[in-house]
Structures are given as structure tokens and as C-alpha cells.
Amino acid sequence: QVQLVESGGGSVQAGGSLRLSCAASGKILNIDRMAWYRQASGKQRELVADITGGGTANYADSVKGRFTISRGNAQRTVYLQMNSLKHEDTAVYYCNVDQITYYDGSRWTTQYDYWGQGTQVTVSS
Predict the structure, then answer these.
(1) Which of 77, 84, 87, 117 could form a disulfide with 125, with the two C-beta atoms 3.0–4.6 Å apart?
(2) pLDDT by residue (tens digit) across 115-124?
(3) Are 60 and 49 spatial neighbours (Cβ–Cβ below 8 Å)?
């Protein structure tokens, strides 16, 4: 099986920084676009940033200039460097891949719209 394991969340004061990581575990053949979403209490989940396999990144207007998304050399890990954090960045952050091909023990399998378990980010003002 495959898992997306997130880490790096926590509590920080406004103006501080955090770095989120999401690593895909398992026997993986290919991962396409990777992204970070967030969901604040009482609000809908929203896209924060995404990055293609070729390295093209896209950001929500609310985080442009403050957040940076990147992928590890093996393309199995995605990072979100968050600087100048604001109280309104408080949310559960989720890692997402739109397509992942992996070996499930008997055959290669492709899953779509795959999510991590989420990591809490709390920014105090």
C-alpha cells in the first residue's frame, strides 16, 4: 500500500515560520502533481499551492510571496515553507496527489486524488 505522511505542523506566533513535509511511502512508480490544501475550522478546504512533476508551482493569492512549495529530488516528497505566518493561516494542512502509481503487492495500481491525514498549523496573533 501507499501512504502520504505529513509532518512539520505545530504552533507558532504571527510572523514566524514553519516547514511542512509530505512523504509518499511504498513502492512507487510515479507521482504526478502534488499539492497542499488547508481547511480552517468552519470553512471549506482550499488549495494553498501545487507543483507539477516538472516543477511548475502555483499559489493561492493569499500566500503568494510568503509560502514556497518544492519537491524532493526523488519526487516523492513535497515541502511547504511557510514564512511570515498570519493568524488566518491557522488550519489543518493536507497533502494531496492527483495521481500516484504504486505496487500493491501483486500489481501496479494507480490511484487518483489521494490525501494525507493532515497536520495542524496554529498561528497565534
Answers:
(1) 87
(2) 999 999 999 9
(3) yes
Distances (CA, A) of 85 to 21, 89, 106, 108, 125: 17, 6, 44, 40, 10
Q: Where are the beta strands (DSSP E) in the chain?
A: 3-7, 10-13, 18-25, 28-31, 34-39, 46-51, 57-59, 67-71, 77-82, 91-103, 108-115, 119-124
Residue pointed to by grid coordinates 513502492: 27
What amino acid is encoded at 57 in this protein? A
Here the cell at position 89 is 493561516
Cβ pair 6, 120 in contact under 8 A: no
